[in-house]
Amino acid sequence: MEAIQAQVRAKESGNYVRQLRRNGWVPAVVYGTNFNNQTIQIKGRELDAALRNQATNKPFRLEVAGQTQDVMVYELQRHPLFGNILHADFKRISMNEKIDTTVPVLMTGDPELGVATLVRHSVEVSCLPGNIPASFTVDVDGLNIGDVILVQDLEIPAGVEVGLDGTEVLISILPVKAASEESLEAQDEAEAVAEKAGTTEEAKKV
C-alpha cells in the first residue's frame, strides 16, 4: 500500500490556496463517517508519484501530523489544460469493512477480424479494500466479428462481488465499418452540439 505524506492545512481562503499551489502543494480534504473533515496539503510531486505507483481505486495510507489513516481517493480535480492536480478528496475507510468501488476494464491483444470495442469501461464491485483489483484485463487476441466478452467471462478474485448481471456485455467485436460509423455518429453529434452552442453564444452577443 502506497503511503502519502501530508500536512494539516491551517487556512482555507482562496488567496492562501492559490499560494499553496504556486509553491507546489495540492490542497486536499479527508472525510469519513464519524470523522470530522480534515483540511490538509500534499506536495504535488509526492502525490503524483504515489498515483503512478498504485491505481487510484486502491487504498492508500495517509500520514498526517504523526497519525496514520487508511483512505481511498474519492475525487481528483485536474487543470483542464495542463493536467496537474488542483485538489484532492480522500475518504477515510476501515480495512475490515467492505466498500463499493469501480474497477476499470482493460483490453490486450488484437482480434483476428474486426475491432474490439469497450461497451463498459468499468465494473462495480464490493469487497474489502485490500481485495480491490487494480483492473480487469481481457485478452481479445484471436476473437472474431460478433464475439462478445460478458461479465461472467471475467476472472473474479476470491472475496470480490461484482454488481452487474453476468450476461452484461463488456466488450464487443464489431466490423471495421460499423466501428467507423459509430465514430462518425459520435463526431456528428459533437459537431451538432458545438454548432448549437455557438449559435446560442452568438445570440447572446446580439
From TrEMBL:
<dbReference type="GO" id="GO:0008097">
    <property type="term" value="F:5S rRNA binding"/>
</dbReference>
<dbReference type="InterPro" id="IPR020930">
    <property type="entry name" value="Ribosomal_uL5_bac-type"/>
</dbReference>
<dbReference type="InterPro" id="IPR011035">
    <property type="entry name" value="Ribosomal_bL25/Gln-tRNA_synth"/>
</dbReference>
<dbReference type="InterPro" id="IPR037121">
    <property type="entry name" value="Ribosomal_bL25_C"/>
</dbReference>
<keyword id="KW-0694">RNA-binding</keyword>
<dbReference type="Pfam" id="PF01386">
    <property type="entry name" value="Ribosomal_L25p"/>
</dbReference>
<dbReference type="GO" id="GO:0006412">
    <property type="term" value="P:translation"/>
</dbReference>
<dbReference type="InterPro" id="IPR029751">
    <property type="entry name" value="Ribosomal_L25_dom"/>
</dbReference>
<keyword id="KW-0687">Ribonucleoprotein</keyword>
<feature type="domain" description="Large ribosomal subunit protein bL25 beta">
    <location>
        <begin position="98"/>
        <end position="175"/>
    </location>
</feature>
<feature type="domain" description="Large ribosomal subunit protein bL25 L25">
    <location>
        <begin position="4"/>
        <end position="90"/>
    </location>
</feature>
<dbReference type="InterPro" id="IPR001021">
    <property type="entry name" value="Ribosomal_bL25_long"/>
</dbReference>
<feature type="region of interest" description="Disordered">
    <location>
        <begin position="184"/>
        <end position="206"/>
    </location>
</feature>
<protein>
    <recommendedName>
        <fullName>Large ribosomal subunit protein bL25</fullName>
    </recommendedName>
</protein>
<comment type="subunit">
    <text>Part of the 50S ribosomal subunit; part of the 5S rRNA/L5/L18/L25 subcomplex. Contacts the 5S rRNA. Binds to the 5S rRNA independently of L5 and L18.</text>
</comment>
<dbReference type="InterPro" id="IPR020057">
    <property type="entry name" value="Ribosomal_bL25_b-dom"/>
</dbReference>
<dbReference type="InterPro" id="IPR020056">
    <property type="entry name" value="Rbsml_bL25/Gln-tRNA_synth_N"/>
</dbReference>
<keyword id="KW-0689">Ribosomal protein</keyword>
<dbReference type="Pfam" id="PF14693">
    <property type="entry name" value="Ribosomal_TL5_C"/>
</dbReference>
<dbReference type="GO" id="GO:0003735">
    <property type="term" value="F:structural constituent of ribosome"/>
</dbReference>
<keyword id="KW-0699">rRNA-binding</keyword>
<dbReference type="GO" id="GO:0022625">
    <property type="term" value="C:cytosolic large ribosomal subunit"/>
</dbReference>
<comment type="function">
    <text>This is one of the proteins that binds to the 5S RNA in the ribosome where it forms part of the central protuberance.</text>
</comment>
<comment type="similarity">
    <text>Belongs to the bacterial ribosomal protein bL25 family. CTC subfamily.</text>
</comment>
